[in-house]
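Worked example (supplementary).
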Amino acid sequence: MRPAYELVESFQIALQALRANKARGALTTLGIIIGIVAVVVTMTAVNGLQNKFRESFSSIGTDVIYVSRMPWVVMDDFFLYRNRPKIDLREAHALEDAMRGRAIVNPSIEGRHDVKHGPETMEGVSVIGTTEKQGRISSAQPEAGRFLTGFDVSSKKNVCVIGSEVRTGLFKGADPLNKTIKVGRSMFRVVGVMEKQGGSFMEGPNFDRQVFIPIGAYVKSYGGHRGERDVNIAIKAPVQERMADLEYEVIGEMRKIRRLRPAEPDNFSLNKLDTLVGTFNSVMGIVLLVGLMVTSISLFVGAVGVMNIMFVSVTERTREIGIRKAIGATRRSILFQFLFESSAICLLGGAIGIVLAAIVTAVINAVVMPASISLPILFVAVVVSIAVGVLAGVAPAYRGARLDPIESLRYE
Amino acid sequence: MRRAGSEATAARAAASAASPTLRLRDVVKSYPMGAETVHALNGVSLDVVKNEYVAIMGPSGSGKSTLRNIIGCLDVPTAGGYTLEGQTVAAMTETQLAEIRNKRIGFVFQTFNLLPRADIFHNVELPLIYAGISRGERRQRAERALERVGLADRMKHRPNELSGGQRQRVAIARALVHNPSIILADEPTGNLDTKTGDSIMEMLDQLHGAGQTIILVTHEEYIAAHAWRTVRLRDGLIESDLPTGRSGDAGAHSMEHLGAGSAAPAAVGAFAG
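After joint prediction of all chains, the assembly is encoded as:
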């Protein structure tokens, strides 16, 4: 019961002090405002990048393993991988046979080609020769028409399914179904349009700018049966739980197909969304850490400003401290008085900072990428503001609390 | 001289047949000053019983202020004993001293020492806040204290909206609000003109008449003359400790003031009870 009234009094003094020194308080909070804006925007930006990433890769299932010549993310020396043999169609089919009954295996070949329809041309569109099993591996579904069928694939028909960006690029508002487009040098009939995916993430793969054609038609038009084109093999686990086992099985089968001796390292790579996400998250973690370190500097500068002002405030109020002590204020209550004052300054700065950061975030959201201030970020911002206030206030408040009442009463 | 003082004190203590409100025993206070040590108090012993009215006098450098600080629990003696209402102050922690200052000592300063930004009511209420007293009771007690000094109608004013005399009365109300063991008034009229000063002294006289123990620190003879006993300090020692001669007409004096006092004697009585 006793501390409560003391604390209320301390809090009221703090507010009074702020009201009495509006201009000074405003200038002091400026440092904190800038710091909090920087910290919050850094966090929301990283958060936004993660959202964008998730959106972009959402069509890749987490239960799919991709066997490729190169890892998706090369963290060590690139030259370790560049001499690996390409995966050819024969190997892909051998793996398909070996895994039959255990998993869905889908080989695909990807190349960049120009696509044309009437006057419209799109350059460097990702053209993927694949099978009807693609539709079972990816979560992306056709929005109009149909995906490739087994018959399309086995008879190597010149039909294609186009991504949503390709549709708008070539057809604008018109209906693309059953129209013929030119892919590279060959003509393909559009049988389906894929639903919109997340778009490109930082110049990465754009799953909306793709054209799917039967793999046989791809080889027919652009080559690849003699191993001059690299084949990607997607393998979908029947149940998520089998992923780890499946990886070992795939490695074993691939080594058999490639006749690798036990001592030889794998000359192919297994890629998963998980590894990509893991790599991405660790990169984002570093970005966040560095970002927060840099922005912390501005917050630190703000805190030093608050500390400075608090020392001024303590000195100004020396006599008041003396009076309060003479009539019974304890060190603790003086300490709290100044801690509240510095926390109030920082909390005010933090609140204004959060509002400004929300505006900046809204702009980022509208212009750059999906970003929003989440509740945890808000929480962090508030806690950081208070923590900065307390830390910046401790030394001045302690000095005030320790003042000798006799000396303070003499202070003019 | 010192012995004479002690005897007088002892006699009075015996006469009142009560343990003294305040008891100082061989109090020494020294400060290091450069390489030397300055002895501000050199062994002061003093007893003050309940409802005494004591003036502490002495030229500057006599140790008057140091004694005030020790009596007011703003400072602790280097050596010697100090008990206030049976509590040993000399060994107290900073927090315990704050509590004693809060509840047992009512300071009245020369420069009033009100908080300039707080209104009169809040100034008077403040000691009660530090004592952890509830809002309702604080209001009641602060209002009563302000009524006693005749300023109940100025509660919402700031100190700078009041005259010097009024400010000092606010300070007295603040000192009284906790019903302290001692009112410790340090040159209470020093910043006031003679007429206003007289009215403040009259108020202290009334409080004394109502049973309040008052210690007056002053260098003005005519102010000290209001007290019933004068303790003179010189060079950190008690030079003399004598009754002023007012104590003889104690009853008549206090009755007279209670009757003629402008500040609601009935309220004074109620408060003391």
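Two points are worth noting when inspecting this output. Residues 322 and 405 of chain A are 4 Å apart (CA to CA). Residues 273-316 of chain A form the longest helix (44 residues).
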